[in-house]
Amino acid sequence: MAVTRTFSIIKPDATRRNLTGAVTKMLEDAGLRVVASKRVRLSREQAEGFYAVHKERPFFGELCDFMTSGPVVVQVLEGEDAVKRNRDVMGATNPADADEGTIRKTYAEGIEANSVHGSDSDENAKIEIDYFFKPEEIVG
Ligand code: RTP
Ligand code: MG
């Protein structure tokens, strides 16, 4: 299996509860390596741009409110089959549907405040990484 990269966000509900380390530990324990990381406060424009694919969804406005409500930690993760590996450890979008041992089952507050984002394809991973990081900020 090839070593690839994915993009992760530790969301405001998790940073507010001081869970940056706990979430990162679960990512690392799943075989992912943090090769770039920074704590940022998303602007409205950044949040709307990042979630542009969801612009027509009824929850878009609320989602952007939530994602700008506090600091987030954006990360690039590296590992074998990183996108799938990360999605597996994140668990289902709604924590009520997430498997035991996943980040969302363990920490998420609800379907929106669900503690983490992870890219859903290699193609989107590249777009999302480029949205937040310059190549020299990523150290593999
Ligand atoms: P993500 O993009 O954050 O990794 O999550 P995902 O693929 O599991 O879920 P997606 O369908 O892409 O939705 C993006 C984020 O929008 C919020 N959401 N709220 N109120 C709702 O019904 C609802 N549905 C989704 C969640 O924060 C979700 O992660
Ligand atoms: Mg998604």
From TrEMBL:
Pfam families in UniProt: NDK
Alphabetized InterPro entries for the sequence: NDK-like_dom, NDK-like_dom_sf, Nucleoside_diP_kinase
Catalytic function, reaction form: a 2'-deoxyribonucleoside 5'-diphosphate + ATP = a 2'-deoxyribonucleoside 5'-triphosphate + ADP; a ribonucleoside 5'-diphosphate + ATP = a ribonucleoside 5'-triphosphate + ADP
PANTHER family in UniProt: NUCLEOSIDE DIPHOSPHATE KINASE (PTHR46161), NUCLEOSIDE DIPHOSPHATE KINASE DDB_G0292928-RELATED (PTHR46161:SF3)
Subunit record text: Homotetramer.
Family: Belongs to the NDK family.
The protein's name in its UniProt record: Nucleoside diphosphate kinase
Annotated organism of origin: Tsuneonella aeria
Lineage: Bacteria, Pseudomonadati, Pseudomonadota, Alphaproteobacteria, Sphingomonadales
Gene: ndk
